[in-house]
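User: Can you help me understand a structure? I only have the sequence.
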Amino acid sequence: MTNIAFLRIDDRLIHGQVIVGWLPEIKPENLVVVNDNVAEDAMRQDLMSLSVPPDVELEFYSTSDISDEDVNESSFILVSSPKDAWECLQKGIKPERFNVGGMHSKDGKEEIFEALHVDDEDRKYFDLIIKSGVEPIFQPTPQNEPKRLGDIL
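Assistant: Let's start by predicting it. Here is the structure, written out as tokens:
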């Protein structure tokens, strides 16, 4: 099992809140995007790399390819769903901080908090995550007050 600094769920993956807010807060050596669609899309990878500072290594993995050997204690893992986060945990990746950011409105998702929309599958994976002993914290930016996800669900 490998400890990492930070795991964040954010359905937008790399965007302003991550680059301007979380990267300076976490100060990772590498940013690891774990997403099946992005892992196979060189154009999206190129676009995402444009906003990442040059001193932060950017890597892309599918959920089936990520392993605890691909990360270390100064890694920041970014996933787009609770299911992808669960896959990372199942691979032996243990975050010191488990952050839930924006999960935005889509068909079939219910708003349970501002910028936090979930469906039955999301709830299922959040339940598995919480039961595994990991405590996700909902906090879109470092300036927002952290809230235990279990209290919101």
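Now, to help you interpret it: The radius of gyration is 14 Å. The first strand starts at residue 2 and ends at 9. Let me know which part you'd like to focus on.
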